[in-house]
Write a structure and sequence with these properties.
There is one protein chain. The chain is an alpha+beta fold and about 200 residues long. The chain folds into two domains: about 100 residues, no CATH class; about 80 residues, no CATH class. It contains four helices and nine strands, in the order E-H-E-E-E-E-E-E-E-E-H-H-H. Strands 2-3-4-5-6-7 form a six-stranded antiparallel sheet. A three-stranded antiparallel sheet has the order 1-8-9.
Length: about 200
């Protein structure tokens, strides 16, 4: 628990660099491109994000993005309904998004991760409590909020089991928080003793 509060010089240590997060990088969605007419034959589309921009030009069967050829494939999930996909220029994998970085490639080739994978790493119990409270329904998903009475049409035993699991997880959270408070009080004592408070 001590390492997560940064006793080292780096008090704002970022575990995952911002440029390796999917949501922080410009990407092109093939389905949005289809909806706006960018996949029509000989269509040219100007792509702009921030101050950067590039051109996407459709030349059957592929699309060219600033001189890089990105193959477009189609599948037919239902008869008469075509759905486009990009093929990653680097690995050839079918994908919905290509990322417009130094090289144009898919999420896996750029080793990008979704931000949601890194939420609640410090206190995973919060996520478990939220998930259990969503299962319970009709209540606030935040920990320690009041729990609702049983819903009509739901087994009382199921409701009581969920409530028991929620209370057990919240008790674990209280234990974790008491450790954190104890650690912070110790740090304050040490810093006051050193005259740095």
């Amino acid at each position: 628990m001590v390492g997560c509060f940064g006793l080292r010089d780096d008090h704002h240590h970022i575990r995952v660099p911002h440029d390796l997060i999917v949501e922080a990088n410009p990407r092109l969605d093939v389905w949005m491109l289809l909806q706006c007419g960018g996949l029509a034959e000989n269509a040219t589309t100007r792509l702009q994000w921030g101050e950067k921009e590039c051109l996407a030009a459709r030349r059957t069967p592929d699309i060219w993005i600033d001189g890089t050829r990105v193959p477009v494939t189609w599948d037919e999930p239902m008869p008469g309904l075509g759905r486009p996909w990009f093929e990653c220029p680097a690995c050839g994998r079918r994908c919905r998004h290509v990322y417009l970085l130094e090289t144009i490639a898919c999420r896996r080739c750029h080793r990008l991760e979704h931000a949601v994978r890194h939420l609640r790493r410090q206190t995973p119990g919060v996520g478990r409590v939220e998930r259990l409270r969503r299962k319970l329904g009709n209540c606030d998903v935040r920990p320690f909020a009041p729990l609702p009475p049983p819903r009509r049409g739901r087994s009382r035993a199921y409701h009581e089991r969920l409530v028991g699991m929620i209370l057990a997880e919240e008790a674990k959270l209280i234990g974790q928080l008491s450790i954190v408070v104890h650690d912070l009080k110790r740090r304050i004592r040490v810093r006051k003793a050193k005259g740095k408070w």
